[in-house]
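#struct-help
A.M.: can someone run this one for me? Single chain, 249 residues.
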Amino acid sequence: MIPWHHVQVGVGIGLAVNLVASQIWSHKLYTNVPKFCLNLGVCVQLVVLPVCTLLAWGDGYAAHGSTVAWLFSDWSAPKVWEQRFVVALVASMTKDMPWIIKYRTAPPGMGNLMIAHHVGCATILLWCLSAETRTASLFIVSTTWLEIGSAMSSLTEFYPTSKNMLRVFFWVMTSSNIQCILAMVWPVVEGVPQSPWSLVMMLTGIITIYFRQVVAHEYRDSFARTGSTIPISPESSIAMTPIGKVSTD
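D.P.: on it. Structure tokens below:
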């Protein structure tokens, strides 16, 4: 079963959560999204997605008899937890988009980069939900590790002057990017049938990974120059407080 309707549910949940949360919590920004977006995102990235993946692996191992067979299975097999994973992932990305678009120039360039990142992730997700995809569960596992790397980025924004947080972020982000490249190459090496669209999506994935790694290096370079991982330009309309919180107030 191809869970297209789960994408629609995820979009609806993401917009609803964003609407409700924006009425309850402050709109003070961390880089270009409110803090509540990062808080909710970290919870999804470090708790919801890993739990869905572990439960999906348990069901998949029982159904297919091995982890590899589960990783290389398509959407025709029952995938309850993978579908819930899709809902959570889409909802998490959707809740960010209105803010990323609104504050795409704060700090300069970061918003546009985040828009490109989310569009790239959404494009790859839609491809992985296609009928031709035979690595649906591998996508779930790889994306979970990528999202853990992204969670470290959010935590770094909470503690921009922590050298230890920077180290954890940089190496978790880098390892998540490397595993994603390996996850894309593995099916090709194993001879899993690939469609022409697969090659396009692999290229999209590589570009997305490249920019993720660029951000990791920019954070490290910013820390070396200024003692903070958040590169706030003097021309930016956002001011950074001593603990790294930024605000348009």
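A.M.: thanks! Residues 233-249 have pLDDT under 50 and may be disordered.
D.P.: also worth noting: The longest strand covers residues 29-30.
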